[in-house]
């Protein structure tokens, strides 16, 4: 939902060249000991200006900060699972939970029909099911004020839709390198009705992580979340279908644009097939 504005140059050149295989920060600050000589200060100023000119977005955006609170996260998802969702929805049918990888880096790729999706994904595939926390990438506007505080302490982190920074992408790659489960809505936002064209950013991110970290084993898990009503209201039924994981390594040929398009096509095809099953193969 966030990488739609990445150009081919920023994805293929910037991401591949500047995303190293280790978990180190993309741009480590080089601190030099302060001296009394004016020449050293002048050189430092020139270096700072050069970095800002080449990568202005990196110079202006701080490294994303988010953490999974050891008390808030379990409490929030407990209330969502046992109070909020059961009180609002009619029935929630889930199929395919056996397809959720137990270990290793995973990118969840759900359809996005409602804001309720953010609670339904953890309900179907979060800590209560897998014993693992989910990390969400959300828009900058959703991370303001009290809501932003909650999102960040539930493991979410912001991205600027119009100007996604390299530091945000680096953070996402680091999460995958550390074996985390990352949730990205590939349609680019809430879309009503049928599946909309997917943004290629999710596949580029997955390929970047896999290419720069040999044998990482990144997987993309297609998910469909469908409601019995276009605009969910109290009593609406929900059908969640989880597909088989797609191995990112199988799509690496050396051309990131071609590989990303091929991977995204298969992810979209799987999401569409899962959505077509809704309310037909489940007991709703």
Automatic annotation (TrEMBL):
Entries under Pfam families matching the protein: Acyltransferase
Classification via SUPFAM superfamilies: Glycerol-3-phosphate (1)-acyltransferase (SSF69593)
Keyword set, alphabetical order: Acyltransferase, Transferase
Example GO BP: phosphatidic acid biosynthetic process
Coiled coil regions in record: none
Chain spans, region Disordered: 29-52
Membrane spanning residue stretches: none
InterPro entries for the chain: Plipid/glycerol_acylTrfase (IPR002123)
Domain Phospholipid/glycerol acyltransferase: 106-228
Gene Ontology MF: a single term: 1-acylglycerol-3-phosphate O-acyltransferase activity
This protein's name: 1-acyl-sn-glycerol-3-phosphate acyltransferase
Lineage, top ranks: Bacteria, Bacillati, Cyanobacteriota, Cyanophyceae, Nostocales
């Amino acid at each position: 939902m966030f990488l739609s504005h990445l150009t081919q140059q920023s994805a293929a050149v910037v991401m591949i060249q500047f995303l190293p295989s280790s978990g180190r920060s993309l741009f480590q600050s080089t601190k030099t000991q302060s001296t009394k000589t004016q020449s050293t200060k002048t050189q430092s100023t020139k270096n700072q200006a050069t970095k800002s000119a080449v990568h202005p977005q990196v110079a202006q955006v701080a490294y994303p900060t988010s953490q999974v609170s050891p008390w808030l996260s379990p409490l929030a998802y407990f209330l969502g699972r046992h109070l909020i969702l059961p009180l609002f929805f009619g029935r929630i049918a889930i199929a395919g939970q056996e397809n959720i990888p137990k270990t290793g880096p995973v990118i969840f790729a759900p359809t996005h029909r409602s804001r309720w999706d953010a609670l339904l994904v953890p309900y179907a595939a979060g800590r209560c099911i897998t014993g693992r926390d989910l990390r969400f990438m959300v828009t900058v506007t959703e991370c303001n004020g009290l809501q932003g505080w909650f999102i960040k302490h539930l493991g979410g982190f912001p991205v600027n839709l119009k100007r996604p920074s390299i530091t945000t992408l680096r953070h996402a790659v680091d999460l995958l390198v550390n074996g985390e489960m990352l949730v990205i809505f590939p349609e680019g936002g809430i879309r009503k009705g049928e599946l909309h064209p997917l943004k290629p950013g999710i596949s580029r991110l997955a390929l970047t992580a896999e290419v720069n970290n040999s044998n990482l084993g990144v997987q993309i898990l297609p998910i469909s979340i469908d409601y019995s009503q276009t605009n969910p209201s109290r009593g609406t039924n929900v059908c969640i279908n989880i597909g088989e994981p797609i191995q990112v390594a199988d799509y690496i040929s050396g051309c990131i644009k071609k590989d990303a398009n091929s991977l995204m096509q298969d992810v979209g095809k799987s999401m569409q097939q899962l959505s077509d099953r809704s309310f037909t193969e489940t007991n709703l």
